[in-house]
Specification:
The protein is α/β, with parallel strands linked by helices. It has helices at about 35-55, 100-110, 145-155, 195-205, 215, 235-245, 255-260, and strands at about 10-15, 55-60, 75-80, 85, 110-115, 130-135, 135-140, 160-165, 180, 185-190, 205-210, 225, 230, 250, 270, 285.
Length: about 290
Amino acid sequence: MGQPLEWGRRYLMVRPDHFRIDYVINPYMSTQDQPDPALALKQWESLRQAIVDAGGSVEVLDQRPDSPDMVYAMNLGLAAADGRAMLSHMRFEPRRKESLSAAEWFTGHGFALDRTGGDGIGPHFESGDAFVFGDSLVVGYGPRTEAEALKHLATEWNVRVRGLRIAHEGMYHLDLPFCPVDSTHAMIYPPAFDAASQAELAGIVPDPIVLTDEEAFAFTANSLVVGETIIMPACSDRLHDVFTGLGLRVVVLDLTEFHKGGGSARCLTNPLDFPLAPVTTQGGELILPL
């Protein structure tokens, strides 16, 4: 059995004061299916409270009126426990204004800020594609994050980066088909990745919890572990037995208003305490699927 995750106790969230669907950048979005503002706020608050009840802490960043997707805070930037943050460089222009507020927040809270490209020029990187797992920073690339950004992460932060190429349009960020559960277990949805990356998963996750199609498209992997609690937008009876068998308390929340924008529990929360261990190789190490 794996050890509890070293991270996931401190989060940044963005209250959905201006959450709406103004454009379509993923298969779940439709401008004809708008979220209910009051219900979205109620669901968001239930998630914030669940994190606190599980022993975590939450800091809140005001949402920009011109950034309706900013509520999906996971994509504001990659934050490390040692006080570094890699600001996201969003692929789609409508989301890029979020970075202005994110940069101000990170620097105002003591984070040293890095970017994959100066003044928005450079490879796209979206932090919903990155997780610390095992001895590495696991990063998805393809739909949103570009492969060149992985090299930048490895070099600038002197860490081991393991890339997984996402090949399914419905799983456009890594936080949809991949969810660390403890030091050896992770939920994975192999069809989200190309063949080479599926083979790489075997070397990354010692104890995979493989999701069915139905589980994956219920946003099941878009969950988060806080201490001994796993907070989920959906959980089948099968998975409930798996997680309780691992000693976790399962909390299932209704977050369906946020599914309209293509995200759920993990997308709404940005962990601020990823432990990033340096590697001995100067300039880091990048491992891509062959």
